[in-house]
Design a protein that fits this description.
Order of helices and strands: HEEEEHEEEHHHHEEH
Number of strands: 9
Shape: elongated
Helix content: 25-40%
Distance between the termini: 59 Å
Length: about 250
């Protein structure tokens, strides 16, 4: 059939004339607690892969979701009771193997959230949720291809930590530079040189002195605050990875 206008074509267009893949959103939600980097996992309550641990997520609703970010926030709340943390898209993956129901696409997101501010809420509509240390979660037999997705999101978080101020989002309003360095070290999984880290933060203007102190051990420590409105600040240079840490990351 030949159409004479765009409107005529769209009027007669039938979406069902073409096969469409399953489309989901999955999220790796990270936090630091008990001195460890942890990821939020949910235990699947339905088939397929019922009973397995997975990243929180679910299907796009074509009628109510105007974009993928809305889907991500909606599914996160439905699955965990957590409402609207910062989310960033990592990658979109699609193939015919990742889901036994057929050809499937997922948009993967990650977030780093304050454990105390976004505590999981009890709800009869949420699946079983649990914070799991990242090293343990990567050893789980996760549903679908979620181990691959988790690794991709973890790599993104580590890279963002090396060149942005994102980890500062986990700090209280006032903090010591030692406390801030500890958060960076927990996420990266290795120690950082103290003088170099302090110089990096102060020379870039990412933190500012408050004139206040607190006692750490038996000595007073200077308190700082974050200097910018958001945590997308990018440092001029990436944090260097110690040689032994780089070897461990590749193994």
């Amino acid at each position: 059939m030949t159409y004479i206008s765009e409107q005529e074509y769209l009027t007669h267009y039938q979406k069902t004339d073409y096969d469409t893949p399953l489309f989901t959103v999955d999220m790796a939600i990270f936090s630091v607690t008990k001195g460890q980097l942890q990821v939020l996992m949910v235990q699947r309550s339905n088939f397929p892969e019922k009973g397995k641990w997975a990243l929180p997520g679910g299907f796009v609703n074509l009628k109510t979701d105007p974009d993928l970010m809305v889907t991500a926030h909606r599914k996160l709340f439905e699955k965990t009771g957590i409402n609207s943390p910062y989310l960033e898209q990592v990658e979109t993956i699609g193939n015919q193997y990742r889901d036994p129901r057929g050809w499937s696409i997922t948009a993967l997101y990650f977030a780093l959230i304050d454990f105390d501010k976004f505590e999981i809420q009890e709800s009869t509509t949420t699946e079983t949720s649990q914070w799991v240390p990242i090293n343990q979660a990567l050893k789980f037999d996760l549903a679908f291809d979620h181990k691959k997705l988790l690794r991709l999101a973890f790599d993104r978080l580590c890279n963002k930590t090396r060149y942005t101020a994102l980890p500062v989002s986990l700090m209280p309003e006032l903090f010591t530079l030692t406390e801030l360095q500890t958060i960076y070290e927990i996420i990266l999984g290795h120690t950082l040189e103290k003088k170099s880290f302090r110089r990096r933060m102060q020379e870039a203007g990412a933190v500012e002195e408050t004139g206040q102190q607190k006692i750490v051990g038996k000595r007073p420590a200077q308190l700082f605050r974050y200097a910018f409105e958001d945590y997308n600040f990018t440092f001029p240079r990436m944090l260097e990875t110690p040689r032994n840490a780089a070897k461990n990351e590749k193994s």
